[in-house]
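During the second year of the project, the team shifted from modelling isolated chains to modelling whole assemblies. The rationale, set out in the original proposal, was that interfaces cannot be judged from single-chain predictions alone. As a representative example for this report, we include one of the complexes processed in the last quarter. Its constituent sequences, exactly as entered into the pipeline, are reproduced here:
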Amino acid sequence: MTITTVPDFPSLAVGDIVAERSFPLTRDSLVRYAGASGDFNPIHYRDDIAHAVGLPGVLAHGMLTMGLAVQAVVDWSGDPGRIVDYQVRFTRPVVVDPESGAVVAVIAKVGQLDDDARAARIDLTVKVGDETVLGKAQARVILG
Amino acid sequence: MPLNPELQGRVFPPTEPYLVGREKVREFSRAVFATNPVNFNVEVARAAGYDDIVAPPTFAVVVQELSLAQLLADPDAGIDFSRVVHGDQRFTSTRPIVAGDELTATLTVTSVKSLGPHSMVTAQSEITDAAGEHVVTSISTLVVRGDE
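Output from the structure prediction step:
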């Protein structure tokens, strides 16, 4: 992959799958994200606190799930600077087991094409197992 | 406790400038599983037309967080942080954040709503660079859980 490879806009069609990625998360991933982002909420690394506030276990930061899901689109588009708008709804928490972790699966599909701006709206399906964890996950990507 | 409805429309003072460090961009990039060389390699980023390495699309949350901290710390707002759940998030960019940027966030509470026992507050942070130019708008909706 090189950053000069830009997807060919005219050849895209609504419904095309442009990327599929799996991201295995472990507790280490959560600690790394806590340090990088400055979000040290203990529900993301302490089982006792997660249980005390009624959660099923330690959760991934929603912003970690949002941040990694868009990487599928970044890699496809060749340049993170092409992503001009990105939104998600946090629909389900991602529980990260201390031993087995969790796998976040991302499918990126063309949702809409804007010929004038040469922009694509990429819709992301983001699941852990059978459960959707991000809703209305959409990135607008400039390909012109 | 319900949220103070008078919070809607409230604008907080701009945060202290945040200097985007090159190693912080690399650290954040690794943490979100970024692999693109423009996130890590200065020469590659410059060849692609950027002043320095490029931060991932969600990096703005680090700067937005400084403005959200003002809202959460405000006793008038009445937000119990232990009951806050992140509902949704959006970033709308004029340009990507690059290492060396000095960024300031100005938060406006754009909406306060009740939903049964819960409250929803939408906070919009305008993030600008040292020249005062818009870089990215970061919008969070926080759900404050009430007693069921």
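The interface with chain B takes residues 1, 3, 23, 29, 32-33, 35-39, 53, 62-64, 66-68, 70-71, 74-75, 78-81, 83-90, 136, 139 of chain A (CB under 8 Å). The mean pLDDT of chain A is 94.
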